[in-house]
Amino acid sequence: MRRIEESELIINPDGSVFHLHLKPEDIAENIILVGDPGRVELISSFFDTIELKKSNREFVSCTGTLNGKRLTVVATGIGTDNIDIVVNELDALVNIDFETRTIKEQHTALNFVRIGTSGALQKDLPVDCWLLSEKAIGFDGLINFYAGRNKVVDDDFEQAFTKSLNWNPLLTAPYVVDAAPDLLSKLVGENVIKGVTISAPGFYGPQGRELRLPIADANINDKITAFRYDNHRVTNYEMECSAIYGLSALLEHKAATVCVIIANRLAGTASKDYKPVMKKLVEHVLRGLTK
Ligand SMILES: O=P(O)(O)O[C@H]1O[C@H](CO)[C@@H](O)[C@H]1O
Ligand SMILES: O=c1cc[nH]c(=O)[nH]1
């Protein structure tokens, strides 16, 4: 059996995984991922019991229970490069034996639910609404580094999207991955709008925001807003969902993302205070995950 070398999976002297500083026994199978480390405190404030709190760099985490269910919250920080670290390390904690450094025969599937913030690309999605991502489009290219990406992507959607946008060959090839249907069904609700989410490798230029620097393709957001495929339209931009969906599909975990829309890019509006709305969304997600 292949032994994974010390350089490839770095384990700290206390037995915890390199960046997250978590040990195999520290995490639950239901994991909430958030970008903002401060959101971990908000989510865990609803827990009935707290088992542990850890932090290293931006990777703040907490495990506890709610309604008898064990949950872990992990802050990923911003960006899909961080998701590569977080999802691979969480997977390693359950699917690699840290003593023998071999892949376990018995696979453990994790449920990842990301609770984030996002910007809308359609006029009818006002600030402070909730958006559940049925599909993610990655502008970040992460999944293209892994073998088997073609097995987990929606190839027809990808082709229709790149053709319709006249995709710039200087950019990485976009990838499209679905959420896990049974996790989506736990998160639906009266106030939850379903959509297709782009994860961008930046907040400004990569999301078509122009401050002092002009954008390479000034019309990219108009083309994205107008794009239709089957009954789908692209609804919003954020910065992590695609990599969570892509890596989860490759590693055989389940993933879904729900965000508070904090800006509407067409209307030019931003939420006055999204924090109370986020608190309500957290309560909604926790209800869905623990009922
Ligand atoms: O609120 P979070 O979860 O961080 O999500 C969004 O906010 C950050 C950008 O402001 C990015 O991480 C983006 O994905
Ligand atoms: O417009 C937005 C708002 C939040 N997060 C993003 O990445 N983009």
Automatic annotation (TrEMBL):
EC number: 2.4.2.3
Stretch forming the signal peptide: none
A Pfam match: PNP_UDP_1
Domain Nucleoside phosphorylase: 31-274
SUPFAM superfamilies according to UniProt: Purine and uridine phosphorylases
Catalytic activity: uridine + phosphate = alpha-D-ribose 1-phosphate + uracil
PANTHER family according to UniProt: FI09636P-RELATED, URIDINE PHOSPHORYLASE
Protein name (database record): Uridine phosphorylase
Record organism: Carboxylicivirga marina
